[in-house]
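Can't attach files on this board, so I'm pasting raw text. These are the components:
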Amino acid sequence: MTAQMGDPVLDVRNLTTSFRIDGEWYPAVRGISFALQPNETLALVGESGCGKSMTALSILGLVPTNNGRVEAERIGFEGRDLSRLSDEEMRKIRGNGISMIFQEPMTSLNPVLTIGFQVTEALIYHQNLSRAEAEREALALLDLVKIPSAKSRFREYPHQFSGGMRQRVMIAMALACRPKVILADEPTTALDVTIQAQILALLNELKAETGMSMIFITHNLGVVAALADRVAVMYAGDIVEIAAVHDLFARPTHPYTEALLRSIPRSDRDMDTLHTIPGTVPPINRMPQGCRFAARCGLARDICREKNPPLDPLGDGAEHAVRCWVRGDHDLPALTEDAHV
Amino acid sequence: MLRFTARRLLFAIPTLLAVMTMVFVLVRIVPGDPAQTILGDQASAEALQIMRERLGLDRPLWEQYFEFMGGALTGDWGQSMVTGKPVLSEILRVLPYTLELTLASLVIGAVIGVPLGAWSALHRNRWIDYVTRVGSLLGLSFPAFVSAILLLIAFSIQLRWFPVISGGNRATFSDWALSLALPAINLGLIMAAYITRVTRSSMLGALGEDYIRTARAKGVPMRVIVWRHAMRNALIPVVTVVGLYLGILIGNSVLTEIVFNRPGLGKLIVGALGQRDYTLLQGLMVIYTFVIVVVNLLTDLTYGLIDPRVKYQ
Amino acid sequence: MTDQTESLAPPSTRHPFVDQLLKAFRTNKLTWVGAVIFVLIVVVALAAPLLSPYDPLQQNILHRLKGPGPDFWLGTDAYGRDILSRLLYGARVSLVIGVAAIGSAMVIGSAIGIVAGYYGGKVDLVIMQAMDVLLAFPALILGLIVVAMLGPSMQNLIIAISLTAIPPFARIARAPTIVVKERDYIEACRALGYGDLRIMTLHVLPNVLSEILVMGSLWLATAIRVEASLSFIGLGVKPPTASWGGMIREGFENILDTFWLSLFPSLAILLVVFSLNLLGDGMRDAIDPKTRSDA
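---
Top answer:
Structure tokens for the assembled complex are below.
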């Protein structure tokens, strides 16, 4: 199902992330697979609680180990399998080969350390630069992300920066070591609309300049249209639909994707409009048997409540796969009989 | 920062005046006649009258009040009713002993408590964490005189490592160190128990913050994350709490001074209470209040060193 | 935020509180240990007349300063009194003073805190300022002065210790009061014409009760520690009544020769205070989500 564009930068196969609740393990991400091509932006889309952020944290090995567990057939990156690396080996990749931008610029920067120090850090730990060299490089990065008078603000603290400026700092930190892959977890959600547009433009520009790939996590399909090459829609830990961005918008196939598109926010709105899909994502320790979306789906049949559909390509040659009994290429009557045998 | 300090000192004045007024009232509403206490039951009415005049007790209350307040503010704290020596010099004579004891125990408490609390937080819910938590709870269950007596029995009486009476002997450095060691360890261990607990909980809080995840995502080594990213944030509540524990520390120093028979404010206050030396008592209360005000100020100034968000306005 | 029908009914706090306490006992075994030890000590104190091998006040010159042995399990003091019997009776003094002092501090302190929080404004400012001044003073020194001035007696010890414990309870009660009084159902109560007193006792008090009770167990530990400290300084109940702090004081005079005179009461105090701290700490963990260990 992956594009034949050569070797992917990141190859995630059968990734499952589980959490322990009262002694039982429940999957939050369930056996998802995707490949990220060089200089591609893959958007992970879905409501909160459907496993998008966990996917990113799992790739970087940042899932809390006391009650979380990550299993994968393979997380391929630069010829290595990240799911088999020790924490120290992973540490050398974090912020270096793969880096991450978080949702909350207000809380994601350390309040007691200077901006300059926090940007410099990744350079010092990964590139063995001297402090002076690292500071020069960090200053260049702050210029790159268009922080005005970066030099004079180098020794200032996060609380002296606005939300948009802090997110620029986060981006500078993520870019510091010229990573191959950036995982951007709702990087604009906490920001004002005008600032959002600026940050998105900046990310697009930097992506084109540096040739990096990006996994962009969002619940906002408007942002997806502007930024992504390909889209994976996630629901309750599954990828329910994956397609090139124009394909998805032209032909949304999964009922959940359809519902998301129908509730697409105007450019000046954000979360509120998603309310139009009735119900909520089920909590991970109360997942229904069968299709996870069945309870909220207008098309649900008996089989939907009994068996979870596979993620199958639509049979028309396009790189478009859907996890749905009704809308996918399935012989429903035959399947229904099967289920009742 | 200078202006902030000045302003804070200015704000401390009402508190100081309030406490001094409270002291004045407290000392005067108690039953019993100081003159009688000083001269004993056998004193003649005449002698009592002369003593009252000497103590100023015959004058109207408001006059006594203003004289007391005025004197206290100008450094004239009167004479001890028992020894006749100036109160201020009596206090200043023993103050260094109490200060060195409390300072030494604070250092011991921080040196043990901060790393132990951080360590415990990092090994949350493992056996090391449980041992530390129960141990620190046990530590703060000790009345200071009980721990002092146990230390005395163990190290001075059984092992004979330290003098039994550490009466503040400071002839040589080793005398000084030996006489300070056991009392300071006693207070320091109790302090460490408190500090361990705060550090553990504030460290747990800091380690759960988003910025720690950011640091990990940058590939910062764990040891740097703990000591540089988490610790400085975790220390902010620790400083507050240490300021709040000053009262406990002062109370414990009184008990420690008694057990180790060490000069200091604590011994002075117990003596003054026993002999109903009201002027000395007033002076001691004022000095305690003063110490508390100064420590609160120092606590606030320390914030500024740790937390850049604090503005001295 | 909440819909109208829901906000009109005052939420019952009893049930969550009981649940939380049960959870404290279920998840943290040390809470059990603390509770069991403390209950045992209370039982022993109540049954002191039955359990004591000797009269705690009975002097016997022939058996002065005996070490621990078969006749006197924990030895005798300088007057030949049985240490074990005095320990058992001493538990009563510690518990009575502690419980009475903290009980009254809880009642007075929470009343002050609720009134300050409920009325707000100048009342709040003046009351809390006064509490802060009281709080600023080291508890032991304050207790020392009050007892020394009033004269050492059980009643005065209770007064002195409860005086030092009032400000913290006022603070604990005030904070949730300020939150609760803004809720819709309090507004509804006012609209229904309920008096302030009724609102405070029926609707505000239940909301602050759990925290006050938990803090009570921790402060009981402190009160017992302070009582022992005052007795040790010589400001405890009058001799010959046995109190642990007083026993340590008497033993301390002979510490070089007969250290066990101080040792046993020291351990007794430590045991009580520790058990109460274990109990209170476990309960507080269960109630306060911030310190909860499984969160």
